[in-house]
Amino acid sequence: VQLQASGGGLVQAGGSLRLSCAASGRTGSSYAMGWFRQAPGKEREFVAAINWIGSSTLYADALKGRFTISGDNAKKTVYLQMNSLNPEDTAVYYCAFSSGGNYAWAERNRYRYWGQGTQVTVSS
Asked: Can you give the pLDDT at residue 100?
């Protein structure tokens, strides 16, 4: 499975960005996709996840209400809409793919495949 993330960039505080991640290869018919982020000097942390049919979503508690994850199963693509961004959201955002099952996962070790990361920088 290959993952191609896009949509990162530089935005002012209070602005919005939409990240996309397309999966290709042997994805199978059921899977979960998630977003994680890693700021300089910090551990990679969970952001949001969604299962393949879109019936289950998970969010990091601190990001609920500002970030929205959605997916297009036909395109094997997951989106992360990020609103009201602040400088603390500055990080490299990674998409991740987990084969099989009908659940969305917050744990990093549930995801076998990772994208290359896309930089999000929020200026104050």
From this structure: 81
